[in-house]
Structure prediction request, 288 residues.
Amino acid sequence: MSLPLASAPAPRLADGVLVINLDHRPERMERFTNMARHISVLQGWERLPAVNGVEIPGYGQPPWFRHRPRDRCWAGRAGCTLSHRNAIACAKDRGWHSVLILEDDIQLGASFDTMAQLVIEHTSTCPKHWDACYLGLSQPVGPSLKLHALGGTQAVYQIFGCTGTFAYILKREAFDWLLAKLPTPETIWTWVSRHRAIDRWYARNLSARFTVQAVSPNLIGHYSSFSDIGQRAGADLLTAESATHQPEHLQPSGKLAFQLHSACLRLRFLVTMAINRIQGAMKRARGF
Prediction:
């Protein structure tokens, strides 16, 4: 008697899916759980406790803090940065080849499951190596190069960078470098004084070493409730359907033009980062 064949595992966007969530925001976790319940490509996701910035050693104390109105905003930025670093460390410790990192206030598009299957097909058969892929972004930074149409208006682009870390895939080739570059609790306040936020640092630095792609318009949007980083109520819902396309003026004609534009922008950011170091020293002297 022959045994029944085991069913093939469902295709996934990454080896693991981590959802970053603060302990004091259970309503976000409940909302995500209900939204993702029937999404096949997200099955097996795990909650990763976020770092609460106000609990990081040094918060509220000199030299960085002088009891000013935006202290908690800086704490939010620091906690967010350390949370993403923890997600990368978790993926490395698990031996994953790739990880999908999600923040708990995402909004899935109506056709997410279908479009995600097309992204899986692209990323698994893409002839060009890639290291990071954004499934949602807030704003593009620098040039982009269209690589592959997915269907409708959505396509996969190679990008210089973008803001927004609410939904992105990293491959293991990037893990060690990012863990070496991103701050620890001991260095976080100096780091945020220079770079402010992890998405801005990614936008300026990630593509200098790795190939970065993005799905545009967004496959995943951003549901903006009260922000622990901005310390204010969220803006309007950024849905997958309403997300901005990669602007045409940022799409140079051809790979060479993309590379030249990117190289010029990197030189500009080298100067900017030198200025940011000076600004960071001033923050240490005066406080955030």
Q: What stands out?
A: The radius of gyration is 19 Å. The longest helix spans residues 255-286. The longest strand covers residues 139-151.
